[in-house]
């Protein structure tokens, strides 16, 4: 189902596939009762009116809140605490984290040095302060005690090619440990009209395959799984960090249990 928003011509677009085509066809074929549609519509409108969604600005007590209020220190502290509490460590073999004693670290992956992935894509608000990337934060936290090398491996989360893989393999052989930062984002994947598995985008075939190979629509997009397997084959400890606003099923290591990857 496509979610909606106003189009340039002033109409409200609820998704060209879900509503404009299929639902109308279902009504015309007597597969959907129009009275039930009216009831569902009334529920939506009642919620909008009861929450003041359609009230004029002068009736909105929150309309005048600005960055100084939204970005107050107490709010920033709460946001930081929430972000820290949201991190889930799925495994930590041999207490690899927090990488004590590792001096040479390779950071690789399309979500390592970007900030848009944290903003939620289509429906994100605008932060009152700049947001550092994972790479910037990790370098700052290392405080000069580690040498951190970075390579994207894939220039976007779509990760359609393996162009950088040779250089990735070379760098992986030269470090003590590797951090892979991948997943999805709200700009290319899970954006309006590019939701994974959506019938009007044909996600698995036409959008984000790995070169010419089709991938699991709920797995790591494109060649990301291949990139993760590549660095794991270096024999170095690998920390896998997945940044995602939706489910990501990783089957990369299901058939290769000898590859030691810690997941967070």
What brief labels describe this structure?
two-stranded antiparallel ribbon; five-stranded parallel β-sheet; 8 helices; 264 residues; alpha/beta; 29% helix
Write the layout of secondary structure elements.
Blueprint: E1 5-6, E2 12-13, H1 18-28, H2 34-50, H3 67-70, H4 73-86, E3 104-108, H5 134-142, E4 147-151, H6 165-172, E5 177-183, H7 203-207, H8 224-232, E6 238-243, E7 261-263
Parallel strand pairs: 3-4, 3-5, 5-6, 6-7
Antiparallel strand pairs: 1-2
Mean pLDDT across the residues is 80
Q: For the largest beta sheet, what order do the strands appear in spatially?
A: 4-3-5-6-7
* DSSP strand tally: 7
Proportion in helices: 25-40%
Radius of gyration: 23 Å
Query: Largest sheet, if any?
Result: 5 strands, parallel
The low-pLDDT segments are 1-7, 199-205, 253-264
Q: How far is the N terminus from the C terminus?
A: 30 Å
Order of helices and strands: EEHHHHEHEHEHHEE
Strand coverage percent? 5-15%
- The structural class is alpha/beta
Number of helices: 8
Q: Which overall shape is indicated by the principal axes computed on the Cα atoms?
A: flat
Q: Could you characterize what this model shows?
A:
- The structure is a single chain.
- The chain is flat, with a radius of gyration of 23 Å.
- It starts with a strand and ends with a strand.
- By secondary structure, the chain is of the alpha/beta class.
- Helices cover 29% and strands 11% of the residues.
- The model is unreliable at 1-7, 199-205 and 253-264 (pLDDT under 50).
- The strands form two sheets. A five-stranded parallel β-sheet has the order 4-3-5-6-7, sandwiched between helices. Strands 1-2 form a two-stranded antiparallel sheet.
């Amino acid at each position: 189902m496509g979610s909606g928003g106003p189009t340039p011509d002033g109409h409200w677009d609820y998704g060209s596939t879900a509503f404009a085509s299929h639902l109308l066809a279902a009504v015309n074929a007597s597969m959907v009762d129009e009275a039930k549609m009216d009831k569902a519509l009334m529920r939506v409108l009642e919620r909008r009116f009861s929450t003041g969604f359609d009230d004029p600005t002068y009736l909105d007590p929150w309309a005048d809140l600005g960055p100084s209020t939204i970005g107050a220190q107490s709010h920033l502290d709460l946001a930081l605490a929430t972000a820290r509490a949201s991190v889930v460590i799925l495994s930590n073999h041999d207490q690899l984290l927090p990488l004590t004693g590792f001096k040479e670290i390779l950071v690789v992956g399309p979500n390592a040095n970007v900030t848009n992935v944290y903003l939620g894509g289509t429906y994100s608000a605008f932060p009152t302060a700049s947001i550092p990337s994972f790479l910037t934060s990790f370098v700052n936290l290392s405080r000069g005690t580690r040498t951190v090398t970075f390579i994207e491996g894939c220039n976007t989360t779509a990760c359609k090619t393996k162009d950088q893989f040779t250089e990735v393999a070379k760098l992986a052989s030269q470090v003590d440990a590797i951090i892979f930062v991948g997943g999805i984002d709200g700009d290319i994947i899970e954006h309006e009209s590019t939701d994974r598995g959506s019938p009007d985008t044909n996600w698995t075939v036409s959008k984000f395959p790995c070169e010419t190979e089709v991938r699991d629509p709920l797995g790591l997009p494109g060649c990301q799984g291949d990139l993760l397997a590549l660095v794991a084959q270096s024999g170095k400890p690998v920390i896998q960090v997945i940044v995602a606003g939706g489910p990501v099923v990783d089957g990369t290591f299901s058939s290769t249990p000898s590859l030691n990857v810690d997941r967070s």
